[in-house]
């Protein structure tokens, strides 16, 4: 079942149009990522989906509800975590969670969220005294306190250390196993690759690519082979092989780039010449590669 549907979304600020017809869907239980450069329109898109901004043109439905209609039921099923968390300076994490919990029918326990997000020791510390990472974790807690069916998370783990980031990823995967659906805005290709079932790449207010992280990563098909040959080999000889796009030598290490069959092609040539490939490494295309390719093409 599709929980989020966006069709033909357009939005302008004054004379400047920042969204030029966004179409996307998120199915029940999915984690879908929205990637793109700064200023591409990612945050505006999710703010329209969350009902924080009104689109100029287009249709949005979240579990059948139009966010622009200000239906109070939307707040019971939708949780949002924005890029920055602004709360009264003297409020504590425990107080903030309990305050937000009061708006929901079946909220999560404050102690549970504090523990899961590593804030137990800061439960009674003023917001103004929290570090940036702790404020970020609190904003995630506030987005999840109401047991939302759908969560919109914008720059989820910005400012968090690697251990905290991994803990939150594991927690979100547990929540999706329990039925939550997540729309995730991120600049982290690692985060998108680790968490997302599908991603949309947005550039200049348009969707320029979509698919699973693996599908997008392999769409370019480029493979890189590095090795140290047991005896010298001319890179020009490797460049003459079918499917090879580049070949260089640096301090005795050969690096060859080519299509999906490049590793087999290079190894076959080396075997035919009686050359051993020492320290052999084959690197496939990544989501970073796909992201850079499609945004540069756009």
TrEMBL record:
Q: Does this entry carry the keyword Translocase?
A: yes
- Major subcellular site: membrane
Keywords of this entry: Antibiotic resistance, ATP-binding, Cell membrane, Membrane, Nucleotide-binding, Translocase, Transport
Gene3D superfamilies per record? P-loop containing nucleotide triphosphate hydrolases (3.40.50.300)
Instruction: Tell whether GTP-binding is among the UniProt keywords.
Output: no
List the record's Gene Ontology CC terms alphabetically: plasma membrane
What is the protein's membrane topology class? Peripheral membrane protein
List the SMART domains.
AAA
User: Domain named ABC transporter: which ranges?
Assistant: 4-229
How is this protein named in the record?
ABC-2 type transport system ATP-binding protein
